[in-house]
Design goal:
about 150 residues; about 10% strand; 5 strands; Oxidized Rhodanese, domain 1; alpha/beta; five-stranded parallel β-sheet
C-alpha cells in the first residue's frame, strides 16, 4: 500500500489530464447526488410505484406524447400534454395533499419539469417514475394500450 502512495505523485505529474478528468467526474457525481437528496420530489422505481399504487392510490399523470401514450402507458394513468399541464387546474389542484406521480416516456425531462412546477404550487407528495414508461416495460410490468 505504501508503495502505491509513493508512486502517486509521479503518476499525477505524468497524467494531469486524466487526474483532472477524474476529479471533474467525481465532483459531478457528488453534486448530482446532493441535488437529488435535497429536491422536494422523489424518484420512484417501477417497484416503488407498484408499492405506492397498492398502498395509497396515487394520481398518475402521463406527460408522454399522445401517440406514445396510446402505444403503452401505466394502467390507471391519465394523459395530459405537457403543453397543457397546469398545477392550478381545478382537477389537479384538488390533489394537493394526495400522492401525485408524473410519468413520461423515458424519464428524461418532462416529468422532472412538471414535478418542479407542482412543488412550487404547494403539492406535498410529488413523485416521478425514474426511466418513465420504458423502465416500467423493462421491469415486465403490465401496460395499458389505447386511450385508457
Amino acid at each position: 500500500m505504501s508503495d502505491v502512495l509513493h508512486k502517486l505523485p509521479e503518476f499525477i505529474g505524468n497524467h494531469l489530464a486524466l487526474v483532472a478528468l477524474f476529479v471533474a467526474l467525481l465532483l459531478a457525481v457528488i453534486v448530482t447526488q446532493l441535488l437529488s437528496l435535497f429536491r422536494k420530489y422523489k424518484e420512484l422505481t417501477p417497484g416503488g410505484l407498484t408499492l405506492l399504487i397498492n398502498r395509497e392510490s396515487p394520481l398518475m399523470v402521463d406527460l408522454s406524447a399522445y401517440a406514445d401514450y396510446e402505444k403503452a402507458h401505466v394502467p390507471g394513468s391519465r394523459h395530459v400534454a405537457m403543453s397543457q399541464f397546469d398545477p392550478e387546474q381545478k382537477d389537479l389542484a384538488k390533489a394537493k395533499d394526495l400522492p401525485v406521480v408524473l410519468i413520461d416516456k423515458d424519464g428524461r425531462g418532462a416529468s422532472e419539469k412538471a414535478a418542479q412546477r407542482l412543488v412550487k404550487a404547494g403539492f406535498t407528495k410529488v413523485h416521478t417514475l425514474g426511466g418513465g414508461v420504458l423502465a416500467w416495460q423493462q421491469a415486465q410490468l403490465p401496460v395499458a394500450k389505447g386511450k385508457n
